[in-house]
Amino acid sequence: MAAEPDPGVVVGDDGLARPAWASADPLMRTYYDTEWGMPVRDERGMYERLSLEAFQSGLSWATILRKRPAFRAAFDDFDPEKVAAYGDDDVERLMNDAGIVRNRAKIQAAITNAGATVALREKGGLVDFVWGFQPADTPRPRTFADVPTQSEESKAMAKALRREGFSFVGPTTMYALMEAVGIVDTHLMGSHRRGTSGVWPD
Fold this sequence. Notes:
Elements: E1 9-11, E2 17-19, H1 26-34, H2 43-56, H3 61-74, H4 80-84, H5 88-95, H6 104-119, H7 126-131, H8 152-163, H9 171-180
Antiparallel strand pairs: 1-2
């Protein structure tokens, strides 16, 4: 008799096990299978993820993912130097862009964080700064309920980023960033993606 799949995962029509959130929407499934949890080691990529996690606050990730092409077009492909130079006219342009999330505080935060990203180059850069909060171990969740929403490391990262001038970087948002860029592996133990980042071998 075949073994029962771990609780929390859904076996798709391709025979692969994923968490429920990555099983229904084709866009979310592709993101989960190819990108989520894989290491991000470039500044632009890290700044983009940090920005999108902030925009996601209070919304579903699927909403942000569908809007990501529009976000990239609106924010100069998340080039930190270009975004850091945005002025009032750019803020109004973004507030009138129906393709993105039109939240003035979050738009201002993305601009502020671009400047902070550029300034952080003097201290080794955003990528090394964020990866500096990698914990000694990673969760091993079997169900979605087992997945943490923040950690001591994400709390410390949030405080450290705020000290460097970043905003919209709370501990829950930063934990989501750590998950997205491979700093922790919160793939469910029964998922076909568990351990694929190369950071955490199990």
